[in-house]
Amino acid sequence: MEKAEGREQNENLRSRTKRFGLRVIRAYSFLQKRDEIQQVLGRQMLRSGTSVGAQYREACRARSPAEFVSKMNSALQELDETVYWFEMLVESQSISKRKLENLMQETDELIAIFVTCIRNTKVK
User: Fold this and answer.
1) Nearest-5° Cα angle at 45, 113 to 49
2) pLDDT digits (tens, 9 = 90+) for 86-115
3) Taking all residues of the chain, what is their mean pLDDT, rounded to a whole number?
4) Alpha carbon distance 75, 90 (integer Å)
5) What are the start-end ranges of the H helices in 1-124?
6) Rounded distance, CA 26 to CA 36, Å?
7) Per-residue pLDDT tens over the stretch 75-88
8) What CATH number is given for 2-123 in this structure?
9) Is residue 36 a contact partner of residue 61, using CB atoms and an 8 Å limit?
């Protein structure tokens, strides 16, 4: 029963991180194509934000707890970097904070989930 729950949780998180990446893509599409600053910051956000799901999928295929923790830490780094680019976009007044609020909240939630997964794996 525990393995089935774990698989379901993995699938839910796989789907959630994929949706997160798609939301980052949509946020990027709102940036002005002719504004060089928006495009540079946006491409960075796009790269790190879409990498989260790929990193999580790699973690799901880990061959050991240590490898899982390593891959999850990589995903966590991508999330943290994505937050940085969100902040840069908002603070440079390239996009309003209101437009990124829900996406920033999802980022915070994913960070909390990933930190918990890493901690729980290390405890085992």
Assistant:
1) 35
2) 999 999 999 999 999 999 999 999 999 999
3) 92
4) 23
5) 2-29, 36-60, 65-91, 97-123
6) 18
7) 999 999 999 999 99
8) 1.20.1440.60
9) no
